[in-house]
Design a protein that fits this description.
The chain is an alpha/beta fold. It contains twelve helices and eight strands. Bound molecules: dihydroflavine-adenine dinucleotide.
């Protein structure tokens, strides 16, 4: 209750206050800010994925902005020799305005990334674009671009079927980030209780690993992380062990032995550092961009427990950092 109240109050505060609260979750408004965060977190043994903030757009000119900005990100990663890849929102590339042009934009980025042996992850947005997003990945693989994968959301009923069908289409080249799913989807297509979402996310992680896919385990939820560690043990997978699965793909640049853990910037740092210390590959999702305000508001609304973090930041400002 207290936490929800603090979040409700924060949502009514001026932008500078929201900026201060969100500084641990958002690198800043420019690429320079994201580079500075990567330089700082490199020493913790983390690798990264960069998200230029923004999603559904209203004109294709905006899509061109995202394409250009991601090329700048790619060049900065190469120049600084960061262990990093890209996370993009397909709708920011125009997928909902003009499917062909959206696909063309995404293909252009993935092609350029391929020349640097860099991976591109298509973040998963709401159910309006689930099928299209998966299809973009399959079409690009068919064109020989295997440095691309997407995200599957544990909460969606369709996810086990998607793991089956994508597995049939691209086999061991399948590379998923598996998370609970941030969008509150209707109960006709999604699980809605916390316990069901957790259980189905765990099942999706197991199933994707069983199918030989590369799996980015994207959760800060202790039971999900613990379950994943158990499943990895069962499959005899782990740090410093070559992926033992018969149906797994060849080792790839910038990837772990069949799996990695992924967490958002500023969330559960101690858990991430502990996993890194145990030898697991851990990737930090780093958002930056002019749209930091909208992103921060969404995070606050998504996770009312952040209220307690805000109170802590206020009382102990030195703790308010990634
Ligand atoms: P849960 O919500 O139960 O969180 C466990 C605990 O972690 C919370 O109690 C809190 O302490 C902390 N926590 C979690 N999220 C927090 C936050 N935002 N700020 C502060 N504390 C937080 N979703 C999607 O639909 N499409 C996508 O492409 C992605 N991509 C993605 C990438 C990465 C790297 C991560 C980690 C997550 C995503 N997500 C996503 C979001 C994901 O679907 C989910 O909404 C959040 O990760 C929260 O779920 P958890 O599994 O962390 O559990």
């Amino acid at each position: 209750m207290l936490s929800k109240l603090i979040v409700a109050m924060t949502l009514r505060m001026p932008r500078w206050f929201v900026r201060w609260v969100s500084r641990r979750y958002v690198a800043g408004s420019t690429l320079k800010d994201a580079v500075a965060v990567m330089k700082r977190l490199e020493s913790e043994g983390a690798c990264f994925t960069i998200d230029v903030l923004g999603e559904e757009i209203s004109s294709l000119d905006e899509a061109q902005f995202f394409l250009d900005e991601y090329v700048r990100v790619m060049n900065a990663i190469v120049e600084n020799k960061f262990d990093a890849n890209l996370s993009i929102k397909p709708t920011a590339f125009g997928l909902l305005i003009d499917k062909d042009k959206g696909m063309e934009n995404i293909e252009s980025l993935v092609r350029q990334a391929a020349t640097h042996d860099m991976f591109v992850r298509l973040d998963m947005e709401d159910h309006r674009v689930t099928t299209e997003t998966i299809q973009v990945v399959l079409d690009l693989h068919e064109k020989g671009l295997t440095n691309v994968g997407t995200v599957l959301q544990g909460r969606l009923h369709r996810t086990p079927d998607d793991i089956e069908s994508v597995g049939v289409a691209i086999g061991s080249n399948a590379d998923y980030r598996i998370c609970k799913g941030i969008y509150l989807e209707p109960e006709e297509i999604a699980y809605t209780s916390r316990s069901d979402i957790r259980e189905k996310t765990n099942e999706a992680i197991r199933k994707a690993l069983e199918h030989g896919a590369y799996v980015g385990i994207a959760s800060h939820d202790v039971p999900v992380v613990d379950y994943s560690l158990e499943v990895l043990k069962e499959f005899k997978m782990g740090p410093s062990i070559d992926d033992p699965r018969d149906n797994a793909g060849e080792p790839r640049n910038g990837k772990g032995p069949g799996y990695e853990f992924q967490m958002l910037l500023g969330v559960r740092g101690p858990m991430r550092r502990k996993l890194t210390k145990q030898g697991h590959r851990t990737r930090v999702y780093i958002p930056y961009g002019e749209k930091w305000y909208e992103y921060s508001i969404r995070r606050l609304q998504e996770n009312p427990t952040i209220g307690l973090q805000i109170a802590k930041a206020f009382l102990m400002p030195w703790t308010n950092r990634p």
